[in-house]
Write a sequence for this structure.
């Protein structure tokens, strides 16, 4: 869901890089085998990712499917993609042009690309993918504004042109993001299929892409296995196999990783455990800020007697909430008190001059006293009609949201406001919070990128999911104009003005900016978070086994798959050595023992 | 007849109860927890939601049972939690027992259409896995303490109804009911004055067992995050400590220990009573 | 003749029970707040009205509720459970993939609990009132009073995290993939802790049933006679008492097996076991109504069928029931 969107961004690359590798292995560059743009100091091995869940299908464009996203990123390609620093980088499109009015986008496609079944990739795959997306309402339909898409023209096999009826400035950013993988037209587009989710499509159970890895098998609830695609356009990946081991539970996933059952921990562990994980031998933890933010929406929907419609009350509540305490306790310090009304991670659009109120409970009490909500004998404030001032805080289920709600409840109790927490599971949250506006305050987390147009979706009265139910002609107009403005500097000005207005009115209160974690074993190098600009997020094409380099001389074959890395010091019982190695070791040990016994006997 | 609620019967039952070791031990266990629950507001402990302590501190003189992930005193929460968990258990079991006893006796006594309909209802609920139904109800309607009680009651009453029905069926056949009919007593009069008092003891004993089952069910539902976040029930506390189970196990294990202790007490009392009022039923 | 009509009556009864149970859940689920379409887009921020409209049509949610109900019931009669909202594929297939995994846990642990529980029950009865009896009774009493998921957490902490004897999660070792018989052993190794948890939770009921009825048998004439004859105590129990007390635990086993499809949701959750329980939880959370209904239907039918079979067996064994029908 929202909180787990695997998107990582880092315009601000901060944070910790502490390693306690077991072996510091200087590797020799001479062992490099370079093909295409992928360089591999070592070839072969199996990389195991501890993964968050079962994919729902293998059509990566149909529905929101976070567990599939990371897997699909290794099987499929997009036209353009995002790197870990959140820049748009080429993928299947080598280059592109945008018309000055942001209505036409032309992509020049790579020529040496083949689908995993050997069929060449051409513009007709692109045309099919986006037309199907439009027809079957793919997950990216709204982001890409496909309702405005007039058509896709293949000028030749390797040039695709998208035309929109109106300017679509945020298009490229969203195209590089979610649900935009190019699908094989020759496998999907057959008349006997009702749509692109027809269970009869073989590619839905055995996906065929253009990406660095080919699909091998999927055991539901257990794992997805991929193997290196030797014909990948950027060169064969360094590792032979890529396995996604599915463990949805955060604690179990962490334990499994620490027990050596995985090389990458793709499930965010309980944040309080980060130091412990980091101090584990042979494990590397890397953190980066993300454009994901927890915020609290006030209910702004017009209704008689709704207390949060009073701006002073909104400010009083904001003054009473200790966001530093939230970061320290609910996030174990791994997060930032949210700055500004938009996320600093998207630097160009972030207005640093507008800040939400900071913690000041005395001021909060002063405002509430002035408004006439006097305290009763129990220390709780009363409404004019004598009832206790009680607010309903609606959240969805999650360790962080629930901890935040508890802290806010306690913060507000101190200034005399009773908070009633209601935890809903996501489906009911959508209905009760987004649709029925059945709350006074509501906390949610979301990805605020990849483009500041996100603010339009979240806080404009025409936005698709305006949690506060906010209606303000001023911000509506600013955000509307910004979406159609091709000039970056002018867009920025519009977004800055909108943020000023938001800070003045405070329909929502930004709480915490999220930090993303990259946790891996030091045996492996070449992760996408180490290679901004070179490889898209979630793609493991460049990963190679660092420990393997020292042992290459022992292994004559440098081809894939046959060699498998042994484990680090922390091993699981019963596992660890390669299968074929175990008998050898046993035989050797037995021989040595026998020899020892024999020599002893002779000696005595 | 042991199952009767006459004065001499009550006295004899009390004598039997006192002689039953397990009931006595169970009662002591329950009383100790009950006492703590009742006294919680008057003991000098921090407010259960105040977050003034360092986080994750293990048991120490300052916090005898340690603190949790938000810096709250676990002792305070466990004692307040006793109130919540016991309240949920008792109310849910009580409600289930009222529904079960009423429907069970009607279905047992009136073997007409009404009886058949209730029979069918009991059968239907018998095949719906209780936990499954509770889960669906809570996910769908959101969670609060009151809904929890209601949901647990709705999903567990059929057991009591079945026992009650069987009891009423057997009591109905007895001679005194026949004679009451002969002297012209109305059905309702007979049911309430003669049948139910004789049939009820096993159902009541079972209700006590049901308290334990309800506490466990609340814990299970809370473990899946479906508890009420506003009150620290033991199940809720186990759930909240779950992410820290490896590095700070006391957050979950302490409320869990209290829960197990209480359920053992409830089961000792319930089983003992069941054995006394109806030796055959106790074998279930 | 009597038996046939009795069976017919039970089957008819069972049929209506299933229909009513399915109807209750159908309306409950469909009247509930929360629209499955919300899950199409992940973050609702990325959901536009056009998408909602498309899926409303695709899933037939635009039809009135009663119409959907009749469509669902008539599909059930044709043996169709529909397509999953989440996975797209047929519900039957989604469920069939999970059933073996769940059954491998629940059947194994039920049978283990049955065997161990029966054995322990007999053993306790043999030394009725002595130390062993009380020790076994107290132990099983403890396991009867601990929530299964909590016991699971305790075992995982002890054997998985601290002693590292067993894996904490997962189905098989992916670091060193096994094949053939080794794969099965590997899966069994991964299933050890969940099976242990379930067995310990299920055991007390078997123990208590067997012990109590065996203790009751102690007072019977035949036991006294055999004792008087000087027969070995162990022999008396294993041959004679056993024969008389084995029926109730077998009945219990049959009923438990009926519920075994639904029984292990919480423990599956603790150990990340990809069975029906987890499928069920996910389906509720993400409002995959067809799968939810499908699981539900499967469970209810299994329970009803097993209870009919049980009744039938008793019907054959006990002529009084036969004549009643």
């Amino acid at each position: 869901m929202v909180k787990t969107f695997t998107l990582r961004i880092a315009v601000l690359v901060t944070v910790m890089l502490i390693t306690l590798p077991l072996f510091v292995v200087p590797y020799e560059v001479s062992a490099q085998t370079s093909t295409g743009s992928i360089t591999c100091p070592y070839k072969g091995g199996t990389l195991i990712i501890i993964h968050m869940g079962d994919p729902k299908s293998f059509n990566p464009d149909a529905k929101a499917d976070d567990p599939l996203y990371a897997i699909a990123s290794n099987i499929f390609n997009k036209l353009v993609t995002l790197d870990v620093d959140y820049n748009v980088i080429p993928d299947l499109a080598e280059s592109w042009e945008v018309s000055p009015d942001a209505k036409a986008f032309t992509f020049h496609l790579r020529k040496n690309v083949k689908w995993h079944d050997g069929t060449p990739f051409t513009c007709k795959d692109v045309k099919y993918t986006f037309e199907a997306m439009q027809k079957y309402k793919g997950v990216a339909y709204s982001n890409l504004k496909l309702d405005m898409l007039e058509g896709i023209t293949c000028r030749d096999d390797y040039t695709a042109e998208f035309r929109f009826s109106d300017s679509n400035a945020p298009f490229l950013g969203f195209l590089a993001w979610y649900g935009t993988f190019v699908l094989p037209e020759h496998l999907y587009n057959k008349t006997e299929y009702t749509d692109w989710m027809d269970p009869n499509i073989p590619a839905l159970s055995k996906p065929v892409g253009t990406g660095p890895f080919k699909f091998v098998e999927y055991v539901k609830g257990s794992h997805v296995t991929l193997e290196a695609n030797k014909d990948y356009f950027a060169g064969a990946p360094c590792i032979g196999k890529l396995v996604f081991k599915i463990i949805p539970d955060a604690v179990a996933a962490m334990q499994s990783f620490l027990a050596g059952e995985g090389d990458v921990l793709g499930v965010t562990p309980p944040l309080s455990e980060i130091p412990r994980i980091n101090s584990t031998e042979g494990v590397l933890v890397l953190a980066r800020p993300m454009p994901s933010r927890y915020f609290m929406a006030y209910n702004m929907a017009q209704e008689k007697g709704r207390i949060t419609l009073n701006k002073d009350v909104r400010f009083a509540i904001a003054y009473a909430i200790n966001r530093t305490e939230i970061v320290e306790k609910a996030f174990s310090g791994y997060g930032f008190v949210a700055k500004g009304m938009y996320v600093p991670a998207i630097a160009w659009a972030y207005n640093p001059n507008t800040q939400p109120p900071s913690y000041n409970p005395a001021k909060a009490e002063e405002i509430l006293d002035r408004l006439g909500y006097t305290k009763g004998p129990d220390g709780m404030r009363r409404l004019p009609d004598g009832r206790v001032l009680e607010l309903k805080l609606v959240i969805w289920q999650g360790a962080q949201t629930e901890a935040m709600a508890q802290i806010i409840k306690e913060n507000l109790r101190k200034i005399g406001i009773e908070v009633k927490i209601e935890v809903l599971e996501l489906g009911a949250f959508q209905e009760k919070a987004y649709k029925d506006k059945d709350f006074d305050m509501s906390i949610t987390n979301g990805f605020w990128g990849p483009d500041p147009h996100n603010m339009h979706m979240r806080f404009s009265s025409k936005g698709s999911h305006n949690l506060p139910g906010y209606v303000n002609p001023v911000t509506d107009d600013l955000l509307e104009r910004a979406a159609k403005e091709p000039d970056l500097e002018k867009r920025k000005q519009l977004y800055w003005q909108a943020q000023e207005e938001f800070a003045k009115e405070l329909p929502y209160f930004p709480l915490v900016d999220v930090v993303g974690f990259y946790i891996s074993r030091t045996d492996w190098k070449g992760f996408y978070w180490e290679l901004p600009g070179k490889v898209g997020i979630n793609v493991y094409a460049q990963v190679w086994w660092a420990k393997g380099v020292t042992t290459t001389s022992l292994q004559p074959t440098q081809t894939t798959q046959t060699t498998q890395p042994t484990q680090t010091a922390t091993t699981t019982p019963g596992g660890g050595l390669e299968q074929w190695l175990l008998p050898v070791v046993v035989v050797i040990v037995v021989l040595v023992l026998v020899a020892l016994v024999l020599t002893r006997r002779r000696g005595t | 007849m042991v199952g009767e609620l006459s004065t001499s019967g009550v006295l004899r039952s009390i004598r039997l109860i006192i002689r039953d070791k397990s009931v006595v031990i169970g009662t002591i266990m329950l009383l100790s927890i009950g006492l703590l629950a009742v006294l919680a507001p008057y003991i000098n402990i921090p407010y259960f939601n105040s977050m003034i302590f360092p986080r994750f501190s293990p048991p120490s003189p300052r916090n005898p049972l340690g603190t949790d992930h938000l810096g709250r005193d676990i002792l305070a929460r466990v004692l307040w939690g006793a109130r919540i968990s016991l309240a949920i258990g008792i109310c849910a079991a009580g409600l289930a027992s009222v529904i079960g006893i009423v429907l069970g006796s009607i279905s047992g006594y009136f073997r007409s259409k009404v009886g058949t309909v209730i029979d069918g209802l009991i059968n239907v609920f018998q095949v719906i896995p209780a936990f499954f139904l509770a889960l669906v109800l809570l996910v769908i309607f959101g969670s609060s303490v009151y809904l929890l009680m209601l949901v647990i009651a709705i999903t567990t009453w059929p057991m009591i109804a079945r026992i009650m029905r069987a009891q009423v069926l057997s009591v109905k056949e007895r001679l005194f009911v026949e004679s009451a009919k002969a002297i012209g007593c109305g059905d309702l009069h007979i049911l309430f004055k003669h049948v139910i008092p004789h049939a009820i003891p096993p159902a009541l004993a079972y209700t006590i067992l049901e308290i334990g089952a309800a506490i466990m069910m609340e814990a299970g539902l809370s473990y899946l995050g479906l508890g009420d976040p506003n009150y620290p029930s033991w199940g809720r506390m186990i759930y909240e400590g779950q992410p820290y189970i490896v590095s700070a196990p006391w957050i979950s294990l302490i409320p869990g220990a209290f829960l197990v202790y209480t359920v053992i007490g409830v089961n000792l009392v319930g089983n003992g009573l069941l054995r006394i009022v109806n030796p055959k039923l106790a074998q279930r | 003749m009597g038996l046939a009509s009795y069976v017919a009556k039970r089957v008819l009864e069972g049929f209506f029970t299933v229909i009513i149970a399915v109807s209750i859940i159908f309306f409950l689920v469909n009247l509930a707040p929360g629209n499955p379409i919300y899950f199409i887009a992940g973050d609702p921020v990325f959901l536009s009205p056009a998408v909602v409209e498309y899926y409303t049509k695709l899933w037939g949610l635009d039809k009135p509720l009663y119409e959907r109900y009749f469509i669902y019931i008539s599909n059930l009669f044709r043996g169709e459970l529909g397509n999953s909202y989440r996975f797209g594929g047929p519900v039957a297939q989604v469920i069939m993939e999970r059933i073996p995994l769940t059954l491998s846990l629940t059947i194994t642990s039920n049978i283990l609990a049955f065997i161990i529980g029966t054995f322990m029950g007999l053993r306790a009865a043999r030394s009725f009132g002595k130390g062993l009896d009380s020790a076994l009774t107290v132990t099983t009493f403890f396991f009867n009073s601990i929530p299964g998921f909590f016991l699971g957490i305790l075992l995982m902490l002890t054997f998985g995290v601290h002693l590292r004897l067993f894996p904490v999660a997962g189905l098989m070792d992916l670091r060193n993939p096994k094949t053939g018989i080794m794969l099965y052993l590997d899966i069994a190794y991964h299933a050890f802790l969940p099976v242990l948890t379930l067995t310990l939770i299920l055991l007390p009921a078997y123990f208590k049933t067997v012990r109590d009825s065996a203790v009751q048998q102690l007072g019977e004439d035949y036991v006294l006679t055999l004792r008087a004859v000087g027969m070995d105590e162990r022999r008396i129990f294993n041959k004679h008492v056993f024969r008389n007390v084995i029926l109730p635990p077998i009945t219990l086993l049959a009923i438990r097996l009926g519920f075994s499809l639904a029984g292990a949701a919480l423990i599956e959750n603790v150990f990340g076991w990809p069975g029906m329980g987890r499928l069920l939880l996910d389906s509720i959370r993400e409002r995959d109504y067809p799968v939810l209904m499908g699981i539900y239907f499967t469970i209810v039918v299994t329970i009803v069928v097993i209870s009919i079979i049980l009744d039938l067996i008793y019907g054959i064994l006990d002529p009084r029931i036969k004549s009643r029908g």
In short: The domain at 31-282+522-560 of chain A is CATH 3.40.190.10 (D-Maltodextrin-Binding Protein; domain 2).
